Description:
Elements: H1 5-29, H2 33-38, H3 45-56, H4 59-72, H5 87-100, H6 107-115, H7 119-154, H8 157-160, H9 173-222, H10 225-231, H11 256-263, H12 268-284, H13 291-297, H14 302-333, E1 341-342, E2 345-346, H15 351-359, H16 364-400, H17 406-428, H18 434-458, H19 464-485, H20 497-500, H21 502-519, H22 525-535, H23 542-551, H24 561-586, H25 590-610
Antiparallel strand pairs: 1-2
Helix pairs in contact: 1-9, 1-16, 3-9, 3-13, 3-14, 3-16, 4-7, 4-14, 5-12, 5-14, 5-24, 6-7, 7-9, 7-15, 7-16, 7-17, 7-18, 7-19, 9-14, 9-16, 9-17, 12-18, 14-15, 14-24, 16-17, 18-19, 18-21, 19-21, 22-23, 24-25
Amino acid sequence: MQLTPLDYAVIAAYLATTVVIGLWVRRRAAKDLDSYYLGGRTLPWPMLSLSNASGMFDISGTMWLVTLGFVYGLKSIWIPWLWPVFNQVFLMVYLSMWLRRSGVLTGAEWIRTRFGDSPGARLSHISVILFAILSVIGFLTYGFVGIGKFIEVFIPWEVVAPYFPLTVTPAYVPHVYGMLFTAVATFYVMLGGMLGVVWTDLIQFLIMTTAAVIIGVTAMQQTDPETIAALVPVGWSSPFFGRELNLNWQNELALVNTKIDSDGYQWFGFLVTMMLFKGVLVSAAGPAPNYDMQKILATRSPREAALMSGFVSVVLMPIRYLMVAGFCVLAITHFHQLDLHVGGRLDLENILPAAIKAFVPTGVAGLFLAGLIAAFMSTFAATVNAAPAYLVNDLYRRYINPKASNRRLIYASYAVSLAVVVLSTTIGLFVHSINSVLQWLVSGLWGGYAAANVLKWYWWRFNGNGFFAGMLSGILCALTFPALFGPLLPDVAADILPLYLFPLLLAVSGAAAVITSLLTQPDDPDTLIHFYESVRPWGFWGPIDRLTRARNPDFQRNTAFGRDMFNVAVGIVAQTALVALPIFIVIKEAFSVAATLVLVTLCFATLKKTWYDTLEH
């Protein structure tokens, strides 16, 4: 497929719309930092939920999911637990409400509500800023690599080279394209802030929903269960697994076995167990300081924060996986039509763009490309919007220039946005795999985040000094463990190494956090009482609960731990079923579709009574 003027016109129309939206909301966004970073907390929760879902519908992640679906079939529904995707369930059930009750602007500012303003609290505040910036740079690098690899398939370098004054080696062609689109996205997000992000996300989600339905229906029309079954390994169409993966591709697709070996997923039962263990801890820690946290803080009330987080999975999973499943089965049944060689080497991460190129008709191709470019820009823009919130609000305004005018703060936000984009782009020049960046982010950096951020919610004795020690040790371990232990574990794939090292990382950072807390003084009782009374967490808060009730005899402690954990379990089952359902539909497994629908219905009916009906008003 060659792009036609109609395809280019569709893409240009989308890009022009984003610029218009940025210009339209610029004045409102520049009113103050609250408007720029949180939209003035005036946006209704369905808009924020669709925006959040849109931001998660990123191009790099979609390319990764299509590759996983192609290689691992229904067993691929478990692998996104690496993120972990079910963190949205924890947010829905209780953590979004706990976080939103603070009324702060950023996750770093939230630290003051928990630890006060002691020296330990200030160190904790700085450690969250450091983590936020590392996280933002990592995700921007991840998006930068993905958009470049995607565009390279549709616009070969030989078409551009005559108009480009520099010689570019094939390995760096994706990076040139990445720089082009990051520049466009940076300009747009600098203009509109959170308002621009949300309004553009709504357009993007509409485009992606249309594209997903088209590709899902196309796949069902052009494939049949018998053909798929004849081409895939035994067990590919089942989500169930044992200790080992036991997928063995044959014939012309035997080369896929090399991908399985390089991913390091052969011991699948152990892998899923590790992902669940890490995922529960990371989810219980609350959202990382990125665009997801900013969307929660932008809601109008704690109740709307919970509804926003819950609705994300309902709208995102079926639509996204309808597209993923459609491209997977088309790629499997028409594998010989795909050109997966880029720069002279086979790259299965290019299945998505190659499938679009092979199977999507003229005009619709422009819609797909506009949608996936929009997906990149949505995630990239939301991430860029999060970065200056921490450096400008939490560092510059608090420690350097407390009396800065709104105008100066907005201009400082522009400067920080440019700086983090330039830095992440520079790092991206040395990265050639989406999966390698993803694994470091979700298994390394977030693993270092887990211990300190679990303890901050559930244990009264945990103080600012302990938080700082846990965060700092976790970040340092995330940065150094792969280099230290990689040579000692030569049989473990480099991409999956951070996940295998998670228990050690957790032990080191957790020990640093607990020991430091016990060796230093507790935080100020007034700060702890105010936090406990306003946020109302459950956990190990006995001494503070007694002090709170002594001051306020009418205070009722939170006794919902059992109900919340039940709802989390039901929510994870429902979310996973929503992932499997569109895949079963596309591959026409009628019995599995019916069984999954029954399971989803039962889960939703249960959550209606045990979660929705209990939300605060």
